[in-house]
C-alpha cells in the first residue's frame, strides 16, 4: 500500500472517529505532539549507553503506550470508536512511579537546579521531558473548558489515565536523565546565577 | 502475535477473476463485521476482509486473483484441506450507528466489508459499487435487497441491450451529481485513487460528514 494517500493535500485530515478537521485542530495537534514525543523516545533509546538494557525495555513499553494514548486523543469524545479502543491501563502512571522510585536511591541528592545536558542519552532524556510537557499541555487543553476543551464526563474519564501518565512521564525523563549521567560518570551541572 | 491455523473448506468463483474462499473457524475466533485478517507467509502478509456472518462454523473472504501477484494466486490455487496461517481479526473499519445517513462507497472487492455489515443486519444504507463491467457486481442482489439505494457504477460503457440498471461513470461522478449536499457518514473501501477523489469531493460538498476509510491498495 502506498504511504501517501493524497487525501490531506487540502489541509484536512480525519479523526479516527470520522470527523474531517483542519490539520491545525487541537486534537490533531495533541496527537502530533505525542507522536513527536514517541520519536524523541526512539532517539533516546538509540543513544543509551551499555549496561542499560532494562531502561531500553522500559522505553519500548513507553513507546507502545504512547501509541495507545495517541489513539485515545484522536477519537472525538463520546464517539462510538472509543468503545473499540482498548481502555488505557489505569496503572500506566503507577508503573512509571515505580521506575522513578527504583532509580532515585542511587542518585546524589538534588541541591540546586541543574542544566539539561551531559551524556548524549541524558540530553535526549531532557528533550523528551520537555516535549512530554508540551504534549501534556495539549492533551489537557482538550479536556478543560477554560481552553475550549470538548471532553466531558465519561469521555474525559477515558483520557484521565493518559493525562496522569504524561504528567508522570516527564518526571520520569528528568530522573532518567540524572540516572544516565550518573551511570556514565558525568556529574550534574548546577545552575549558577 | 498470535497466529491461527485454518484449513480450506471450499472455493467458489464469482467471476473469472474473483472467488470466495471458505475456511474452518478456529475456536475463540471472534470478529466485528468489517474487520480483516492477515494471511502470513514467508515473513510477509496480506490482509483480507471477513465477509461474515460474524457467527457460524466458517470464515469466508472474497479475493481478486491478481495475475502475477505474490499471494492471491496461492489462494486461487488452494484445494480443500490446504493450511494457512492467519492473524486474529483487527481493524476499526466497522459500522458506527449514527443519526446521519450512511453512504458506503466501494470499488471492486472493496465491497467485502459492506457485505459483512449487511450480514450483521445493517440496513437503510446507500451503496455505490464502482467496477469496470457488470459481471464484477459481486453480491449485487443480496446488497440491493438490504440497501435503501444500491447504485452500480460501471466505468466502461455497456453494449446496447445490457440488462442491469446502473450509472455509467465513476463513483465520484455519481456523488458529485446525484447525492444531495448535506452531512453523511461515508465509508470508503477499495483502491486509494477512489478514496482520494471521493475525499476531495466530501471536503468540497459534504463537509459536515464523517468519513471512515479502508485502503486495499
Ligand atoms: C485492510 C485490507 C483489506 C483487504 N481486503 C481484501 C479483500 O477482501 N479481498 C481482496 O481481494 N483483496 C483485499 N486486500 C488486498 C490484499 O491484501 C492484497 O493486496 C491482494 O490480494 C494482492 O496481493 P498479492 O500478493 O496477490 O499481489 P502483490 O504482489 O502484492 O501485488 C499488489 C498489486 O495488486 C493489485 N491489487 C491488490 N489488491 C487488489 C484488489 N483487491 N483488486 C484489484 N487489484 C488489486 C494492486 O495493483 C497492487 O499494487 C485488502 C488489503 C487491505 C490493506
Report the CATH architecture of the largest domain in chain B: 3-Layer(aba) Sandwich
Helix content of chain B: 10-25%
Strand content of chain A: under 5%
> How many separate domains of chain B?
2
Bound molecules: flavin-adenine dinucleotide
Structure summary, number of beta strands of chain A: 2
Low-confidence stretches of chain A: none
The class by helix and strand makeup of chain A works out as: mainly alpha
Q: How far from one another are the termini of chain A?
A: 56 Å
What string, H for helix and E for strand, traces the elements of chain A in order? EEHHHHH
Named CATH topology of the largest domain in chain B: Rossmann fold
**Residues in β-strands, percent of chain B:** 25-35%
Sketch the major β-sheet of chain B: 6 strands, antiparallel
SS content category of chain B = alpha/beta
Contiguous helical run count of chain B: 5
Describe this structure in words.
The complex is a heterodimer of chains A (193) and B (217). Chain A is mainly α and 193 residues long. Chain A has a domain at 36-73 and 88-106 and 114-186: Up-down Bundle (Hypothetical Protein Ta1238, Chain: A), CATH 1.20.1200.10. Chain A has helices at residues 26-46, 53-73, 92-103, 120-143, 153-183; strands spanning 12-14, 20-22. Chain A has a two-stranded antiparallel ribbon. In chain A, helix 1 packs antiparallel against helix 2 (53-73) and helix 1 packs antiparallel against helix 4. Chain A starts with 11 loop residues before the first strand and ends in a 10-residue tail after the last helix. Chain B is α/β, with parallel strands linked by helices and 217 residues long. Chain B has 2 domains: 3-87, Elongation Factor Tu (Ef-tu), domain 3 (Beta Barrel), CATH 2.40.30; 102-215, Rossmann fold, CATH 3.40.50.80. In chain B, 20% of the residues lie in helices and 34% in strands. Chain B contains 5 helices and 12 strands. In chain B, helix 5 links the parallel strand 11 (185-190) and strand 12 (210-215). The model of chain B has no long low-confidence stretch (mean pLDDT 95). The complex binds flavin-adenine dinucleotide (FAD). Residues 36, 46-49, 61-64, 66, 69-72, 108-109, 112, 214, 216-217 of chain B line the site of flavin-adenine dinucleotide.
Amino acid at each position: 500500500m502506498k504511504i501517501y494517500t493524497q487525501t490531506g493535500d487540502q489541509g484536512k485530515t480525519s479523526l479516527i472517529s470520522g470527523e474531517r478537521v483542519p490539520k491545525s485542530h487541537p486534537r490533531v495537534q495533541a496527537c502530533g505532539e505525542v507522536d513527536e514525543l514517541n520519536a524523541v523516545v526512539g532517539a533516546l533509546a538509540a543513544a543509551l549507553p551499555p549496561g542499560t538494557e532494562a531502561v531500553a525495555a522500559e522505553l519500548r513499553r513507553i513507546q507502545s503506550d504512547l501509541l495507545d494514548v495517541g489513539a485515545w486523543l484522536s477519537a472525538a469524545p463520546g464517539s462510538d470508536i472509543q468503545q473499540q479502543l482498548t481502555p488505557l491501563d489505569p496503572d500506566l502512571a503507577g508503573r512509571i512511579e515505580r521506575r522513578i522510585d527504583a532509580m532515585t536511591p542511587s542518585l546524589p541528592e538534588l541541591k540546586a537546579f541543574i542544566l539539561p545536558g551531559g551524556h548524549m542519552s541524558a540530553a535526549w532524556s531532557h528533550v523528551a521531558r520537555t516535549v512530554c510537557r508540551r504534549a501534556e499541555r495539549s492533551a489537557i487543553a482538550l479536556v478543560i473548558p477554560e481552553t475550549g476543551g470538548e471532553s466531558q464526563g465519561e469521555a474525559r474519564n477515558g483520557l484521565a489515565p493518559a493525562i496522569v501518565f504524561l504528567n508522570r512521564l516527564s518526571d520520569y525523563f528528568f530522573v532518567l536523565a540524572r540516572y544516565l549521567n550518573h551511570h556514565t560518570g558525568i556529574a550534574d551541572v548546577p545552575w549558577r546565577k | 502475535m498470535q497466529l491461527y491455523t485454518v484449513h480450506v473448506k471450499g472455493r467458489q468463483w464469482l467471476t473469472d477473476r474473483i472467488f470466495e474462499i471458505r475456511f474452518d473457524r478456529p475456536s475463540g475466533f471472534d470478529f466485528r463485521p468489517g474487520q480483516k485478517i492477515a494471511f502470513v507467509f514467508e515473513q510477509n502478509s496480506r490482509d483480507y476482509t471477513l465477509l461474515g456472518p460474524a457467527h457460524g462454523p466458517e470464515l469466508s473472504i472474497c479475493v481478486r486473483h491478481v495475475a502475477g501477484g505474490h499471494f492471491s494466486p496461492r489462494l486461487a490455487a488452494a484445494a480443500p484441506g490446504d493450511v494457512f496461517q492467519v492473524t486474529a481479526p483487527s481493524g476499526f473499519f466497522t459500522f458506527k450507528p449514527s443519526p446521519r445517513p450512511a453512504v458506503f462507497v466501494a470499488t471492486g472487492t472493496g465491497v467485502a466489508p459492506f457485505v459483512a455489515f449487511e450480514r450483521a443486519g445493517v440496513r437503510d444504507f446507500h451503496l455505490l459499487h464502482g467496477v469496470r463491467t457488470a459481471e464484477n457486481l459481486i453480491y449485487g442482489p443480496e446488497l440491493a435487497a438490504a440497501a435503501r439505494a444500491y447504485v452500480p457504477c460501471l466505468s466502461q460503457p455497456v453494449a446496447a441491450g445490457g440488462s442491469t440498471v446502473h450509472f455509467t461513470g465513476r463513483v465520484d461522478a455519481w456523488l458529485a451529481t446525484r447525492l444531495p449536499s448535506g452531512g453523511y457518514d461515508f465509508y470508503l473501501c477499495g483502491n486509494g485513487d477512489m478514496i482520494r477523489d471521493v475525499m476531495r469531493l466530501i471536503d468540497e460538498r459534504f463537509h459536515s460528514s464523517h468519513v471512515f476509510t479502508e485502503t486495499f491498495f
